[in-house]
């Protein structure tokens, strides 16, 4: 389908201001990233994970500004998928959307399982047999919220994000008050493993890069944002700044309170940030973190279903997915078939999965998408460009470099999945070409 034909499709209503858009960005970032990946990265690089967070935040800011100017000039559903098509070629556009689709469904499944674990712990009913059923129920409930339209989704997202941020602020402030008087006994570089320090730091940076990946979700819903040229850059910048401050604060308090080894211990019954709160010796502190974690997982799940359904909407418009994926409800606020499909895929993925592997695949996908975004941003004209060109070059070169620090097994899986996507894309285009050639002339 040509761009002109795409523009003839019904567009979704613009219902999001800069504040609503920022909330969606924060909901996309503050969740699995801080509650799960911080422990994984700390296990690799120890105290140096703080530097990995700062470096990943800077690189993510460069990539996010690229996305901001692309989205401001092309405020349509689909994000990177549409930018790849418009500024590069249909192969890169499709693979960018394809990897986003696969990677984020895996993250959504991880978030659902994470919610289930935190929730069952919080109510004192933890049992491995309950984890999957509760996770599946959470996916169904969030799907119903998304089907209710953007207004219902943004209210739910605002509430869950507000609770999550309050819990993290509680962790940071309480941790500083409790441990600053006696000193953070674990906050020392002696805990770092001197062997392969640089390698571990770079791998941690690559893993933490995806923990900032909220701007892409904002770009996915660009078609629903009011005054996109003004509101999208503002929302993306606020998302990065707030996230960076929270992440660094949580990392300092967590590492200083219990140390990198305890933070990365995946065999413990209690989740990592709950263990940090328990170290304060304050009754109920860990429960506050558990509540924040459950709302964080729900907000991530909601934002992913929102973003992926809009991606499928764009792919349906262009013919890379069945055309019914582009159908909207009567109020033109929800691509309902796309939401149903995403819900079904996430529920299937909930049945299996390894957090470390899933997160590593997410990191590879994030870096791959960053490369496509940077290449597309370099194609912007002087009139379209909002930020200096050197930001795009920094984002491109850094992502190419960091990608090589992802485990080789993840590379193999990722390129295998890209290959499957390209086979699908090629087959779809051949079918469309054949239909065009054989279409009778009226």
Question: What is the structure about, briefly put?
Answer:
The protein is mainly alpha-helical. It has helices at 3-7, 18-29, 32-45, 49-73, 80-87, 90-122, 128-147, 150-180, 197-209, 215-220, 228-263, 272-278, 285-318, 336-349, 355-378, 389-403, 408-438.
In N-to-C order, the SSE pattern is HHHHHHHHHHHHHHHHH
The residue fraction in helices comes out at over 70%
Mean pLDDT: 80
Q: Based on CA inertia axes, which overall geometry fits? A: globular
Largest sheet: none
Unreliable residue runs:
1-9
Radius of gyration, in Å, reads: 21 Å
Terminal Cα separation, in Å? 20 Å
Strand content: under 5%
- The oligomeric status of these chains comes to single chain
Question: Which structural class best describes the helix and strand composition?
Answer: mainly alpha
Strands, count: 0
The number of helical runs is 17
Structure description:
The protein has 442 residues and is mostly helical. 74% of the residues lie in helices and 0% in strands. The protein has helices at residues 3-7, 18-29, 32-45, 49-73, 80-87, 90-122, 128-147, 150-180, 197-209, 215-220, 228-263, 272-278, 285-318, 336-349, 355-378, 389-403, 408-438. Helix 15 crosses helix 17. The protein is globular and about 75 Å long. The two termini are 20 Å apart. The relative contact order is 0.20. Residues 1-9 have low confidence and may be disordered.
Which descriptors would you attach to this protein?
globular, disordered N terminus, 442 residues, mainly alpha, 17 helices
């Amino acid at each position: 389908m040509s761009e002109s034909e795409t523009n003839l499709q019904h567009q979704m209503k613009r219902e999001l201001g800069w504040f609503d858009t920022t909330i969606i960005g924060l909901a996309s970032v503050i969740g699995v990233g801080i509650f799960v990946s911080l422990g994984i990265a700390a296990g690799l690089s120890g105290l140096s994970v703080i530097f990995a967070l700062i470096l990943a935040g800077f690189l993510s800011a460069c990539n996010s500004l690229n996305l901001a100017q692309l989205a401001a000039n092309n405020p349509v559903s689909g994000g990177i998928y549409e930018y790849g098509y418009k500024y590069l070629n249909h192969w890169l556009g499709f693979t960018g959307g394809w990897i986003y689709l696969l990677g984020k469904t895996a993250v959504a499944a991880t978030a659902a399982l994470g919610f289930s674990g935190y929730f069952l712990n919080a109510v004192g009913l933890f049992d491995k047999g309950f984890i999957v059923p509760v996770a599946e129920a959470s996916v169904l409930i969030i799907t119903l919220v998304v089907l209710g339209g953007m207004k219902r989704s943004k209210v739910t997202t605002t509430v869950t994000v507000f609770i999550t941020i309050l819990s993290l602020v509680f962790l940071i402030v309480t941790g500083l008050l409790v441990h600053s008087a006696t000193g953070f006994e674990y906050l020392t570089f002696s805990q770092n493993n001197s062997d392969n320090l640089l390698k571990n730091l770079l791998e941690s940076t690559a893993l933490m890069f995806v923990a900032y990946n909220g701007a892409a979700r904002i770009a996915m819903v660009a078609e629903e944002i009011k005054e996109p040229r003004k509101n999208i850059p503002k929302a993306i910048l606020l998302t990065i700044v707030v996230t960076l401050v929270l992440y660094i604060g949580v990392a300092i308090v967590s590492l200083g309170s219990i140390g990198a080894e305890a933070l990365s211990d995946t065999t413990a019954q209690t989740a990592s940030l709950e263990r940090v709160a328990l170290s304060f010796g304050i009754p109920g502190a860990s429960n506050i973190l558990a509540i924040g974690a459950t709302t964080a997982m729900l907000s991530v799940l909601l934002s992913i279903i929102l973003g992926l359904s809009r991606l499928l909407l764009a792919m349906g418009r262009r013919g890379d997915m069945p055309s019914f994926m582009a159908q909207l409800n009567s109020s033109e606020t929800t691509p309902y078939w796309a939401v149903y499909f995403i819900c079904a895929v996430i529920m299937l993925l909930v049945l299996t999965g390894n957090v470390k592997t899933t997160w590593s695949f997410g990191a590879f996908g994030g870096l791959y998408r960053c490369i496509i975004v940077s290449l597309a941003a370099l194609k912007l004209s002087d009139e379209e460009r909002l930020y200096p060109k050197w930001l795009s070059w920094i984002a491109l070169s850094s992502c190419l470099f960091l990608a090589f620090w992802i485990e080789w097994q993840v590379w193999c899986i990722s390129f295998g999945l890209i290959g499957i996507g390209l086979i699908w894309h090629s087959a779809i285009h051949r079918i469309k070409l054949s239909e065009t050639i054989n279409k009778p002339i009226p």
